[in-house]
Amino acid sequence: TEEAPSDGESESIEPAPRLEDVEDIDFDLFLEAWTLIEEQFDGKVPSNEEILFSAIEGSLETLGDENTRFVRPDVAARMREDAGGSVEGIGAFVRETDDGLFEIVRPIAGQPAEAAGLLPGDIVLAVDGELTENYSFDEIILRVRGPRGTDVTLTILREGVEEPIDFTITRVRFELATVEFEMLEGNIAYIKLATFLDPTATEKVAEALQTLLDQGAESVIFDLRDDPGGFLNQSISVADLFLPDSVVLLERNNAGLDRVFRADDGDLGEEVPLVVLINGGSASASEIVAGAIQDNDRGVLIGEVTFGKGSVQNIFELSDGSEMRVTIARFYSPDNNIIHGVGITPDIIVEMAFDAEEDIQLLRAIEYLQTGE
């Protein structure tokens, strides 16, 4: 989960005591080493920019936190563009596995990745012949994306297939809808939230909910499957739509931060029967909402165990347009349950294969709302 982008003047988080000052690092030694490389190395020396960026990235690995990371300027610019909802690429949700691999979570319906035959769980070994192990997760995303009408070739490792498979996919431009909604049979409102990175996510969920309630909705299915999260403030306000006065989230860090986020009375969805759909692609802000609904006995969670990202990052834009994403705290569910590395376990577990002919998780949610069990 991310705080809103910051210029470094957001709420001050006092650091844990440290016996040294970063300003005292002997960068003369760094320059001495690279001067020797420049003079003596029998090979091509990278650009100064590449040396600098690699030094930052390498030093951050000493923190042991995969979520605190440096985002290079070109990647950061592309990510800021994507926040507007319009993307040029192949149309797939992706994630970095615990082993640092680039995994396809799910192709987006109707987009080139699905048409080409990519499947959930596919591991991208190379992009246009360049091994992904040589690049950061963000750099791989940048390489997969590109101008519409151009081709990209992905080398895929697929479970059960001995040899890697090449897929050549033509990029397109497509819009990522933050919210999709419809009325299901039996006056059941269905609302799917794709991301919390949209700063108007709460407003869009509220509009969808109001529209369906006006049409006579008597219960709600809130679909957070494959929602990778986004801004912390949006997770709190989205949860508030469905919760009465209650705790949404506990946030703590080693510097003594101990903060409680609460929901207020008086919102649209506080009394309507509720089911929340989750799966392994539901992460971060999605887990905040799911955990709050579950711990406050406000609704029933159906699906699969969530991803397990229980940390909060502040985003700082640096002078050259690059970004630092810094973990500032960990969050816990209202009952003080750990989310990071554990995830949220649904009340009713329904495992579903990607190629299932029917959405059995959705059907189970409908059944629960109709029968109460």
UniProtKB/TrEMBL annotation:
Listed Pfam families: PDZ_6, Peptidase_S41
**Enzyme Commission designation:** 3.4.21.102
Q: What class of enzyme is it?
A: hydrolase
Q: What keywords tag this UniProt record?
A: Hydrolase, Protease, Serine protease
Q: Where is the PDZ domain?
A: 76-145
Q: Return one Gene Ontology term, BP aspect.
A: signal transduction
Picking any one GO molecular function of the record gives:
serine-type endopeptidase activity
Report the family membership.
Belongs to the peptidase S41A family.
**Protein known as:** Tail-specific protease
Species annotation: hydrothermal vent metagenome
